[in-house]
Design goal:
Blueprint: H1 2-27, H2 35-46, H3 49-53, E1 57-66, E2 71-80, E3 84-90, E4 96-101, E5 106-109, E6 115-117, H4 120-129, H5 138-141, E7 144-153, E8 156-164, E9 171-176, E10 182-191, E11 194-208, E12 211-221, E13 227-236
Antiparallel strand pairs: 1-2, 1-13, 2-3, 3-4, 4-5, 5-6, 7-8, 8-9, 9-10, 10-11, 11-12, 12-13
Length: 249
């Protein structure tokens, strides 16, 4: 009887310790994937390299809401390979603001006819940021990429990768643990002659021509410049693009 009790207690203790150890193992974080795995998973989630390289340009039409100004305005975002970008913001009767990067030079056109050239620092960063196939070229554009582990963006778990280019400011990209797609990016920018930290979030991915595109883009930091862009329509491989990246006058 005494032997039975000893064996029973030992078995019970072993069972408790085994269960406790199992609980500890379950609570330990899953293995963090390598940089290559995160980047490859992102490409697959977006639709794959073949589908992505078929697209050479994009026009997105929607609205931008700017709480600080109490305004919601029509906006058109255009981009083309290899690294051209343009934005047109309609200010009602006041006219149109155009912000252009033609791959090497950049400027902003205001409704009163002024053309404001982009500063050197912004141009250096733009050459990386405006890459039309950026999701395929992270390792090319950012020679140094560091895995920062799992972080939180809102209610999402994300893998944070700090990416440093040869020239320009580093960016930290957040890849959704669940979907594999980019949930946001932290960067540095110059606004109103101040250096500020920026955070842009991407939501509501939808498939267009075989590729996933975020239909909601939010600038949440800095708060004084916060905005939300909601896309209503997207066109790919538009033929008439000759005026997209040229000065209007």
């Amino acid at each position: 009887m005494i032997l039975f009790l000893k064996i029973g207690k030992a078995a019970l203790a072993a069972a408790i310790l085994g269960a406790f150890a199992s609980d500890l193992r379950a609570e330990q974080p899953a293995k963090i994937p390598s940089v290559d795995v995160v980047l490859e998973r992102n490409i697959k989630a977006l639709g794959g390299k073949k589908a992505m390289t078929k697209i050479k340009n994009r026009e997105a039409v929607g609205n931008i809401k700017m709480p600080a100004f109490g305004a919601e305005l029509p906006v058109i975002l255009r981009a083309a390979a290899p690294n051209l970008e343009a934005m047109e913001l309609t200010l009602g009767d006041a006219g149109v603001v155009r912000d252009i990067f033609d791959g090497s030079k950049g400027w902003t056109e205001t409704p009163d006819g002024n053309v404001i050239p982009k500063k050197e620092r912004e141009l250096i960063n733009k050459k990386t940021e405006a890459d039309f196939h950026a999701d395929l070229n992270y390792k090319k554009n950012y020679p140094k990429i560091k895995q920062l582990g799992v972080q939180k963006i809102g209610d999402k778990d994300v893998y944070a990768l700090k990416m440093t280019p040869k020239k320009g400011d580093p960016d930290t990209f957040f890849f959704d643990v669940k979907t594999g797609m980019v949930a946001g990016v932290d960067s540095t920018a110059e606004m109103q002659n101040m250096e500020v930290k920026t955070r842009v979030l991407f939501h509501d991915y939808r498939k267009v021509d075989g590729v996933q595109i975020p239909f909601t883009i939010e600038l949440v930091e800095p708060k004084f410049a916060a905005f939300t862009i909601t896309i209503e329509k997207i066109r790919h491989n538009v033929k008439q693009t000759s005026d997209w990246f040229k000065k209007s006058k």
